[in-house]
Amino acid sequence: MYKNLVAALAAACFFSPTYSQTKEPLKVGFVYVAPITEAGWVRQHEEGRKAVDAALGDKVKTTYVENVPEGADAERVIRDLAQQGNKLIFTPSFGYMEPTLKVAKEFPDVKFESITGYKTAPNVATANARYYEGRYLAGIAAGRMTQSNLAGYVAGFPIPEVLQGINAFTLGMRSVNAKAQVKVVWLNAWFDPPRERDAAMTLFNQDVDVIAFHTGSNAVMAAAQERGKLAIAYHSDMRKAGPDAQILAVTHQWGDYYTQRTQAVLAGSWKPGSVWGGVKQGMIRVGDFGAKVPKAVQAEVLARQRDIASGKLRPFTGPIFDNEGAQVLGKGQAMTDEKILGMNFFVAGVQGKPAK
């Protein structure tokens, strides 16, 4: 289904000369906000790059630059990739959006994909995933597994995408465990393994027995393994780091999207657009259950995943109250995409305020 969605996006485009008319491979660049590690945000995008290579072979020549900070460094690296002849450049980090747009103006013949960005241009497309759908499912598992009824959440930045995840996780927990509460620690960083670990340890010292995170490494999972606690893996399967700790993994699947968009450039049918796909489109998947998770809990989570894929279950459906008691959605009301994308509150059950 997801492939059809992207193919439709590509098919709706105007025709232009194709790269297949020459023997030169299409050069495709990727910019990574952190180092490539064995699991995490960057790992999943690196797997997407490898999927492009596997699918398109000698039609493409891909390259990447890792550990590029958001801001001036990102702008320099993106510009360098364009100057080196890359005709398609993927920039998968929210803070890369403005640098991508700036460089895109200088290179109108280069196509750019701003992953998690929201601003488009004639040669800049955006794409993101409905990560919150996986978070809701993880919350169901956490709600079933917690003994203390208190979960922790190590969060990067207080942007809507992160707030969506915290809120969906909490709603998922409370859908099966009305006593569940979630404590949040803000890092104001995407990738800082020592601080990620310290934040997890702080939460474990406050009676948290299940932890989730929105950061770029597996440090939180490793901390849970060390302390004998439970954790939700994010971005990648992290059972290697937490064989006893992992409940399940919310994984991001970028290979199909990257391949389809690269094929569109090769065919001359690429155009700017905006894709926001989730479980239904194959961009988000929950699985990789740990050995401690009862089969009944696994079955429950997978059943709810099918419900999300079919449209039967929408995580942000009322009644929903914020954590100050105000009603956000009435019973049976579904939150619009516009409201989800601009989320700026915590739901009931989250302790604290949606900023550091």
What would you say this structure looks like, in words?
By secondary structure, the protein is of the alpha/beta class. It folds into 2 domains: 154 residues, 3-Layer(aba) Sandwich (Rossmann fold); 190 residues, Rossmann fold (3-Layer(aba) Sandwich), CATH 3.40.50.2300. Helix content is 38%, strand content 21%. The strands form 3 sheets. Strands 12-10-9-8-6-7-15 form a 7-stranded mixed β-sheet, sandwiched between helices. Strands 2-1-3-4-5-11 form a 6-stranded parallel β-sheet, with helices on both faces. Strand 6, helix 6 and strand 7 form a beta-alpha-beta unit. Helix 3 packs parallel to helix 4 and helix 7 packs parallel to helix 8. It is globular and about 60 Å long. The relative contact order is 0.16. The N terminus is likely disordered.
Strand order of the largest sheet: 12-10-9-8-6-7-15
The fold-level CATH name of the largest domain is Rossmann fold
Q: Segments where pLDDT lies below 50 for 5+ residues?
A: 1-21
The coarse silhouette is globular
Q: Tell me the CATH superfamily of the largest domain.
A: Response regulator
CATH architecture descriptor of the largest domain: 3-Layer(aba) Sandwich
The share of residues in helices is 25-40%
Percent strand equals: 15-25%
Mean pLDDT: 93
State the end-to-end distance. Answer: 39 Å
CATH class of the largest domain: Alpha Beta
Major beta sheet summary = 7 strands, mixed
- Give the number of DSSP strands: 15
Could you spell the SSE succession in H and E letters?
HEHEHEHEEHEHEHEHEEHEEHEEHE
